[in-house]
Amino acid sequence: MEQDASTLKPSGIRGKDAAGVERIPGLMRLFAPGKAMAVALPLNGGELELGRGSPALGEAQDPRMSRRHARIRFDGRRFWVTDLGSQNGTFVDGEPVPPETPREVQRVIRMGDSLFVPNADVNPLEQLGVVTRDGFVRGPAVQALLEEVARAARLGFPLHIHGESGTGKEGMARAFHENGPHSAGPFVAVNCAAIPQTIAERLLFGAKRGAYSGADADAQGYLQSADGGTLFLDEVVELDLAVQAKLLRALETKEILSLGAAKPKTVDILICSASNKDLRGLVAAGKLREDLYFRIGRPEVSLPPLRQRPEELALLVQREVQQVAPELGLHISLVETCLLRPWPGNVRELLVETRSAIQAALMHGAQRVEARHLSTNAGTAFGSGPAPAPMSVPTSAPPPEDREAAAREAASRARPLEADERTRIEEALRQQGGNVAATARALGMHRTQLRRLLERHAIAIPAGNEPD
Fold this sequence. Notes:
Layout: E1 26-32, E2 35-42, E3 47-50, E4 70-74, E5 79-83, E6 90-92, E7 95-96, E8 103-104, E9 109-111, E10 114-119, H1 123-128, E11 131-133, E12 136-138, H2 140-154, E13 159-162, H3 169-178, E14 187-191, H4 200-205, H5 222-225, E15 230-234, H6 241-253, E16 255-256, E17 265-266, E18 270-275, H7 279-284, H8 290-296, E19 300-302, H9 310-324, E20 329-330, H10 332-340, H11 346-363, E21 368-369, H12 400-413, H13 419-431, H14 436-443, H15 447-456
Parallel strand pairs: 13-18, 13-19, 14-15, 15-18, 20-21
Antiparallel strand pairs: 1-2, 1-10, 3-4, 4-5, 5-8, 6-7, 6-9, 9-10, 11-12, 16-17
Helix pairs in contact: 2-3, 9-11, 13-14, 14-15
């Protein structure tokens, strides 16, 4: 989207978040020549001019940037980028922008060999940075959640972790265990979705010898194994209602009655559960017992998806390359492409696909991992049609009419939208009050792509809201 520069007035207004902390709009610099980073660049007065030698870039200068490369403005709602006639050009969301023409940015800006992501509040990044601990890369949002988790653990409360698949719920559960009164005891993680319902009771509560055909010895259940420690029940909502009832009784009485046992056994465990589904909605649908919800559903923390934690992404990719093939370099095109994709499988998917890209680079004898080594489907939303080709360093953009034709062709080949993906889009629309641009940012896609999905799959916008 283009707009006359005269209409763009830097607001300079700094709002406050729900806790009364000042919000500071700015950029997050996530990649400098050959190196991932996470550095906050505040837009003082609502505007920032960047180029080679800019004090804001510190020691990590970029020789491929011009001395006056681009200007970034924040108008109170949106970020705008204006190329100042740079030699190597400025790219917004993967496309080159004409000089002296303001362009709205949704996801990522490339200048030279540096990548920047706009953010309405860089204060958390400036204050907390991104840290790597115990093998986990943790940005400001996750660090804040870890403090909540630690408080709940120290008080001996149960904890429920909500988050999409692959966001790092088990890592959060381990932090809960390590900060609680049972940190010296075992940590037992159970994937309830993988337990066959016919043997769920036996696996959870154990069985005595002779309890059923083939039970020739006592078998300890997961709850007994976690005695004196923490039991992590991932996707606890997948348990049968009858098993949920027995689990509730065990949690309330701290007694477990194994199959075939005459007397219960006392256990002392701390409970942490997780799900990628809304617990209250499952209670209303009759798939989760209301009494169990009140026992394990509060307090709750919500892990944001990777697309809302871009400050972690480049560091995650770089760490994976260094661990798998330290002899390889990391090219800006790979990081840029990863920042432009929504990654519905979150951190888990990113790491798996990065490993595949590393293997492709090694097989082709490359000296660095580039976007061309990444699968075309990696990190793309399910059901949204074929992914765009991986980006290398673009030199020119196709004419607008060609891009429109390609989009129409892709739409005609698109598969029906998966139920989970449709639910994710509808939920994001509700959370953003029907604002299409805000929903697109939350989903990690351009608003034009989202509008096509809404129209193609007849997804209604909440009443009283129109696409912007």
